[in-house]
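re: the backbone from monday

yeah here it is again, tokenized this time
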């Protein structure tokens, strides 16, 4: 095994997803600590612009897989592509974003390569030239440390946790093409993504979420109005999703989406364990709840004890004025 760290770069709609750049950035930091290099894998909609962007954020080499067999995501063919580059480069570690695609891909790559897998990692250190990963468990109440016993260390990285490196267009990055059998037992004929017109929760830097404290489905517009004013993504607690106020795509929590925004505003959310499990790693948490004993205040950086129907309208007005003044 070399000191190379391999990363999988996910593309959606022809553009690199931010978690892919976060994975490359963290790989660069870890590779620099061990005088290693970073190799990124692009599968499917690979182009020169994407390779250049990966290079600017720290990749020394980008290996591209193109062709009709990779046009749409298939766990079988994509896993073979990543495994092929593992065979080519003999990396010590593989970083894969902890996205919907990454959650499906990483275990398959681990199976094909014999590597050990640690999921949903939030930080890395090095001991004796080997990675040590940390991840939260039990809704963030315990931080566990993991070391690999397998030669190949595979990890999925929680989005919005790892800082992006400053892009440098002057970095030298090699681009190479590779091929692998793209035949699969099932063929993806078409991929239709529902366009909700809303920001993607998992990658959002600011999220405004609503809970049962809104009292009725028609009051969820207060959350949407504040979110629109702040340019934020919209989230919801499981309680109101189960009641049918909003679709499951909005749900934040253990049975919904895991998020790590810079700012998370919880409105009328009590702070049930399953909800906290999905947002505890937010950098700044603001809670708005009329119950001063609500569990959400135990994890909040800032809390407003008050009626959200009195708090949200002026807060939305202030947000509109603030962002309007900034042009």
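seq for it, each position gets an aa:
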């Amino acid at each position: 095994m070399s000191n190379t760290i391999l990363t999988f770069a996910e593309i959606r709609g022809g553009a690199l997803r931010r978690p892919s750049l976060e994975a490359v950035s963290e790989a660069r930091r870890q590779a620099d600590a061990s005088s290693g290099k970073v190799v990124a894998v692009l599968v499917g909609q690979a182009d020169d612009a994407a390779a250049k962007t990966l290079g600017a954020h720290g990749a020394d080499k980008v290996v591209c897989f193109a062709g009709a067999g990779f046009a749409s995501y298939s766990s079988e063919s994509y896993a073979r592509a990543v495994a092929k580059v593992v065979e080519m480069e003999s990396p010590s570690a593989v970083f894969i974003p902890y996205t919907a695609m990454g959650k499906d891909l990483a275990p398959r790559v681990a199976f094909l390569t014999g590597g050990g897998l640690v999921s949903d990692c939030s930080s890395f250190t090095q001991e004796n030239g080997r990675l040590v990963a940390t991840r939260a468990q039990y809704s963030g109440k315990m931080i566990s440390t993991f070391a690999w016993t397998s030669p190949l260390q595979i990890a999925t990285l929680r989005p919005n946790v790892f800082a992006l490196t400053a892009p440098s267009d002057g970095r030298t990055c090699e681009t190479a093409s590779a091929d692998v059998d793209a035949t699969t037992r099932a063929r993806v004929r078409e991929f239709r993504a529902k366009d909700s017109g809303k920001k993607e929760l998992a990658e959002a830097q600011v999220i405004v979420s609503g809970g049962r404290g809104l009292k009725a489905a028609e009051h969820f517009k207060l959350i949407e109005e504040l979110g629109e004013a702040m340019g934020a993504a919209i989230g919801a607690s499981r309680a109101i999703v189960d009641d049918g106020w909003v679709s499951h795509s909005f749900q934040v929590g253990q049975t919904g989406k895991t998020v790590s925004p810079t700012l998370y505003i919880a409105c009328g959310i009590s702070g049930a364990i399953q909800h906290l499990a999905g947002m505890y790693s937010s950098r700044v948490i603001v809670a708005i709840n009329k119950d001063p004993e609500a569990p959400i205040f135990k994890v909040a950086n800032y809390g407003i004890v008050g009626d959200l129907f009195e708090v949200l309208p002026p807060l939305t007005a202030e947000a509109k004025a603030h962002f309007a003044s900034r042009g």
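The radius of gyration is 21 Å. The first helix runs from residue 18 to 33.
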